[in-house]
Amino acid sequence: MKKSAADIWEDLRNQVDFLAEVGAGFALRPAEDEGRGEPSAAPSLPSLAGRPAPTAAERKALEELDRQVLVCRLCALHKLRTHAVPGEGNRSAELMFIGEAPGRDEDAQGRPFIGRAGQLLRKIIAAMKFREDEVYITNIVKCRPPDNRVPHSEEEEACSPYLVRQIELIRPRVIVTLGKTPTDYFVPGREGMTARRGHFGDYRGVPVMPTFHPSYLVRNEGNRELKRMVWEDMQKVMALVGRK
Ligand code: URA
Predict the structure, then answer these.
(1) pTM, whole model, 2 decimals?
(2) Given ligand 1 and candidates 85, 88, 132, 139, which is best to mutate, with the most ligand atoms within 8 Å of its CB?
(3) Residue 141 in domain
């Protein structure tokens, strides 16, 4: 779908806004340690050459999967939802963002990341020079937990096969996990997010970049250092997909 001039303007405004917030000077030059390598994961990153694009049948399968999510009853969260939220974006996206679970706004509208945290995520995406319709945004749990609590393990277990299938069908080049819940699922580790963010993990050959959840940034609005760290992580992602 072609973007209107107003949408393109909105993307540009978001891009500039976020770069200004993190400090444009920092954003426009490489991080100081860039080029010295990722100690843990870089040597084992898979070749990204020749990633086959999803076939027509796979795109159809993804649409069918969305329909299944919308009527899913695999865990108790379905009783409380207004809408299940399968995810949105490009069905052959290079870049996939995975959050925890829908919040109130997302439950009301059936779209991922549209509340305050979502607006910040969308600014980050624009700052990365991606249009929203180029990436795929989803969550590990597709229905809202009450009071936005962290999903229980049985809810995650019931729901995660949908996400796994989405990844298999979309085959992103890079996954960004937002916060602890999806990071624990894809690249489990005992350390906290501060230690784990910024280091690529691997999920079945797909590099996974853990970073802070945008709602954590929203809750700590005055803390520019957190935003700077997220931006540093996203620059590594951009370098990997050749957008830097
Ligand atoms: N937080 C998430 O993890 N996902 C959303 O979709 C919205 C807020």
Answers:
(1) 0.83
(2) 139
(3) yes
